[in-house]
């Protein structure tokens, strides 16, 4: 293998063998699961802090200001200070709220993100799960989150929250279709739903380049629908600060609010990671045709860095959207999906199937 | 075949109207305005504004204050067009005193009025974008507004509630830098105003959100007394600067911006065009400030002769009127303000019925309400 030194499967396999030598298989499984769980907890903590900081700085650049500058050098400790504040804050609850549902709603949302992130391939051999139905699994578990949003809106006993939750329900159910179909467009080419195989199929070029115009259309549709699915601006109707104060999480405070906040950023990361994996080759380096020298230099960059760069680029795009566009209205949002994106997607997938059938892709 | 009777099911499915309190603490009422919305799902059936949260009985306070003190109170009404409010009171008092105001004062008042109009409209533009979800506009608007407030600070020491007018003239002469700084601002703003169009006006989402929303016909605008940019967007020619020129507006050549559509986008466009027109007015006057006194001599204690005086000016929101009844004492017997915000708000219910909550925010934003102006 060309980049075997960067292959994480040797590391994971050696850990597995080491554990197998000293423990029974049940214990090995338990230990490995807790290790993975801890790793994801750490990942989420790091993701939350860095993405919030990044959002602040990106928005500051777009808005011609400096962003947080006081806490720590360049405001680096600002988000950590905010986390401490959120954790220490009293979790208030509306007296008329449905206590059980109000309590579990944030957990449902965060669990959905945890489940989805398990399938993300970070680098060669570095993933928790590698299903043969990877894409199906991700789109299935990521839509669990909407239940959390609906419950949060319903149980808060606040009309603003309810409107926000209902909007969110309509929005995510609709845009789920576009996300799924745009991913399927690439699955038609790669011939597999498994993430590792989709990535391997892009060893000689990313699908966005190899799949002609339909792949590009699918990518754009995926970006739009993905932004909508994460409830981020211009599709942040569920929160819609200027209309619904804070939408479905108006009544939440403290650590429960932090969960909603974290889940939003985690979902953004997941959508961008899936997009990078399916359209931009995941951890595959950029290769240009037969330029052996160029390709060798590209191979030298570790896959995890490639993955990070692609995800960062997509996240930046999503932040750029948020801080530039005004918000859509709910009927316009649904019109965009059902009248434009979905028909485009359906035609696109047919076109792609035809291209795949004729073998016209590279 | 048996025909099914669905009538019972249909009544069971009938939606129920509910109401929601928008405000007094709500991000897009921009102040303590409380709107009771009657909603059917997301569709607005009725809007009921409840006022009084920031009522300070300014009109009553005026009845025991001296005329020079009344000027200060008007700042606190429409704080974004404070200079124009001041000017209205001063003009009314000067009308009663029958003093001849120096030309220099007239020109400077006009200049500062137009600068205030631009600063008010830039703030409105930023807030309008923010109401529609584009937060970046807010900071762009404030960036350009900052230059104007800096000029004001240098001129009279205050940035927002300026109190630059006194009955008979101005508090003090302009700063020697004034002309240069205003010219620098014009140069800066001429480059930045097209940026506003790039960022917001030409955005497809923005146009979708505003075109055809909250339509106000010319007849309705007149019957509700909607003035200012909101009225002119409906084709109601109501620019006080043109109809009843005051200060130096008869010396300058400018257009009254009119639009026929009467929707949110028209109101938006009218305000953007007004900023260009204000710059035009400033350009005509900035190099032609006549020499002379900055204040006509008045007595220390002003007593208006017995009678009634009315003066209207065009603020950034519409027609602002001051009606003074004097019984010859040092404070007015009765004083009434005609604030544009109050009349504009009265049309809100008519405009918002049948639209969605998100449209409601857009409509309110294009009316450009300043709550202290409504409540007084």
Describe the structure.
The complex is a heterodimer of chains A (362) and B (376). Chain A contains 15 helices and no strands. In chain A, helix 4 runs antiparallel to helix 5 and helix 12 packs across helix 14 (303-324). Chain A has helices at residues 8-22, 25-62, 78-88, 99-117, 134-142, 145-155, 159-190, 195-200, 207-210, 212-229, 241-244, 254-279, 292-300, 303-324, 330-358. The longest helix of chain A is centred in the N-terminal third of the chain and has 38 residues, at 25-62. Chain A has one domain (93-358). The model of chain A has no long low-confidence stretch (mean pLDDT 83). With 362 residues, chain A is an all-alpha fold. With 376 residues, chain B is mainly α. Chain B has a single domain (57-374), classed as Orthogonal Bundle (Cytochrome-c3 Hydrogenase, chain B). In chain B, the strands form three sheets. Chain B has a three-stranded antiparallel β-sheet. A three-stranded antiparallel β-sheet of chain B has the order 6-7-8. In chain B, helix 3 (67-75) packs antiparallel against helix 4 (82-97), helix 4 runs antiparallel to helix 5 and helix 5 packs antiparallel against helix 6 (136-156). The radius of gyration of chain B is 22 Å and the shape is globular. Chain B starts with 6 loop residues before the first helix and ends with a helix. The interface between A and B is medium-sized, with 28 and 30 residues.
């Amino acid at each position: 293998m060309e980049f075997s030194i960067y292959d994480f499967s040797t590391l994971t396999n050696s850990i597995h063998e080491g554990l197998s030598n000293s423990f029974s298989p049940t214990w090995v499984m338990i230990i490995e699961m807790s290790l993975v769980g801890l790793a994801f907890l750490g990942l989420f903590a790091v993701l939350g802090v860095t993405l919030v900081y990044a959002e602040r700085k990106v928005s500051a650049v777009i808005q011609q200001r400096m962003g947080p500058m006081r806490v720590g050098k360049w405001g680096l400790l600002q988000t950590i200070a905010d986390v401490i504040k959120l954790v220490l804050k009293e979790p208030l609850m509306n007296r008329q709220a449905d206590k059980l549902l109000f309590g579990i709603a944030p957990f449902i949302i965060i669990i959905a993100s945890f489940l989805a992130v398990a399938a993300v391939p970070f680098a060669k051999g570095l993933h928790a799960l590698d299903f043969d139905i990877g894409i199906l699994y991700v789109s299935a578990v990521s839509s669990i989150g909407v239940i959390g949003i609906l419950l949060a809106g319903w149980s808060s006993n606040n009309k603003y929250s309810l409107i926000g939750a209902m909007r969110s329900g309509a929005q995510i159910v609709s845009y789920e279709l576009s996300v799924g179909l745009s991913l399927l467009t690439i699955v038609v080419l790669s011939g597999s739903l498994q993430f590792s195989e989709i990535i391997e199929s892009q060893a000689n070029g990313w699908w966005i380049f190899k799949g002609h115009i339909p792949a590009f259309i699918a990518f754009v549709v995926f970006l739009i629908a993905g932004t909508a699915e994460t409830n981020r601006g211009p599709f942040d109707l569920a929160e819609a600060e200027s209309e619904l104060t804070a939408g479905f999480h108006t009544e939440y405070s403290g650590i429960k609010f932090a969960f909603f906040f974290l889940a939003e950023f985690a979902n953004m990361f997941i959508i961008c990671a899936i997009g990078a994996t399916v359209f931009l080759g995941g951890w595959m380096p950029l290769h240009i045709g037969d330029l052996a020298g160029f390709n060798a230099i590209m191979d030298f960059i570790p896959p995890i860095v490639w993955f990070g760069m692609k995800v960062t680029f997509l996240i930046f795009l999503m932040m750029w959207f948020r801080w530039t566009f005004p918000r859509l209205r709910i009927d316009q949002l649904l019109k965009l999906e059902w009248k434009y994106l979905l028909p485009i997607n359906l035609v696109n997938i047919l076109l792609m199937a035809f291209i795949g059938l004729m073998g016209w892709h590279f | 075949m048996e025909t099914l009777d669905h009538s019972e099911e249909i009544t069971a499915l009938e939606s129920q109207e509910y109401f929601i309190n928008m405000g007094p603490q709500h991000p897009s009422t921009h102040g303590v305005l409380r709107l009771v919305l009657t909603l059917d799902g997301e569709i607005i059936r009725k809007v009921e504004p409840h006022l009084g949260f920031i009522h300070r009985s300014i009109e009553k306070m005026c009845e025991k204050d001296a005329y020079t003190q009344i000027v200060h109170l008007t700042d606190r009404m429409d704080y974004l067009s404070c200079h124009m409010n001041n000017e209205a009171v001063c003009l009314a008092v000067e009308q009663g005193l029958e003093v001849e105001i120096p030309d220099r004062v007239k020109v400077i008042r006009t200049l500062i009025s137009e600068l205030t109009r631009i600063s008010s409209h830039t703030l409105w533009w930023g807030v309008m974008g923010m109401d529609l979800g584009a937060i970046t506009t807010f900071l762009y608007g404030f960036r350009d507004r900052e230059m104007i407030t800096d000029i004001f600070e240098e001129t009279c020491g205050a940035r927002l509630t300026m109190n630059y007018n006194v009955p008979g003239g101005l508090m003090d002469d302009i700063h020697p830098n004034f002309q240069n700084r205003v010219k620098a601002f014009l140069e800066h703003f001429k480059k930045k105003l097209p940026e506003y169009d790039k960022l917001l006006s030409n955005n497809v989402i923005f146009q979708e959100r505003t075109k055809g929303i909250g339509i106000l016909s010319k007849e309705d605008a007149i019957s509700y007394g909607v003035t200012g940019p909101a009225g002119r967007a409906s084709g109601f020619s109501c620019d006080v600067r043109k109809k009843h020129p005051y200060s130096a507006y008869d010396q300058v050549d400018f257009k009254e911006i009119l639009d026929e559509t009467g929707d949110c986008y028209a109101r938006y466009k009218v305000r953007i065009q007004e900023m260009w027109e204000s710059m035009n007015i400033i350009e005509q006057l900035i190099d032609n400030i006549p020499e002379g006194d900055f204040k006509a001599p008045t007595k220390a204690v002003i007593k208006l002769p017995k009678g009634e005086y009315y003066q209207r000016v065009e603020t950034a929101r519409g027609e602002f009127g001051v009606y003074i009844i004097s019984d010859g004492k040092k404070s007015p017997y009765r004083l009434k303000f005609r604030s544009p915000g109050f009349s504009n708000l009265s049309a809100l219910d008519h405009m918002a019925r049948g639209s969605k909550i998100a449209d409601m925010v857009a409509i309110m934003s294009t009316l450009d309400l300043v709550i202290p102006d409504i409540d007084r």
